[in-house]
Model the fold of this input.
Amino acid sequence: MEQVDLNINGVVREVSVEKNWTLLKALRDGLRFTGTKCGCETGDCGACMVIIDGKAVRSCLVKAVNVSGKVIETIEGLAAGENLHPIQQAFIDGGAVQCGFCTPGMIMSAKALLDVNQSPTEAEIREAIDMNICRCTGYEKIVESIFMAAERMNGGKNE
Ligand code: FES
Ligand code: FES
Done:
């Protein structure tokens, strides 16, 4: 095992990892940040999506030792105390959550988009969640909820 410093949700945390551990494994097994889900571990499902230096990244595809010093965001960092992030709230209000397994990854992909573009087109939203598989919802409510979040985040200027 070796120690690596990971900057997660604004806090630098030291975690013991094996050299070959993915960031996903370091988050879940090393730090018990289990909001990031483990689906396929082969880069195919998007359940493990986090944001690294502003970009949505599948955490099963990067080694933990290679992201020391980068700014990592996980689903645990979104809510402010009791207040959910607007994307989280929109997913609830818009009925975008069924089993919920894909939801953290979907929300992180949506956040990476809305952090830089709060007036997205439907095509931009669908592209942003292109790497995220949902077996339950048919995607429509997810896309609608991301629209709803964008509206709320920019104060209705999308009208
Ligand atoms: S667990 Fe990473 S893409 Fe499926
Ligand atoms: S809500 Fe079940 S996989 Fe998306």
Remarks:
- The mean pLDDT is 97.
- The CA atoms of residues 96 and 142 lie 5 Å apart.
- The helical segments are 23-30, 86-93, 103-114, 122-128, 140-153.
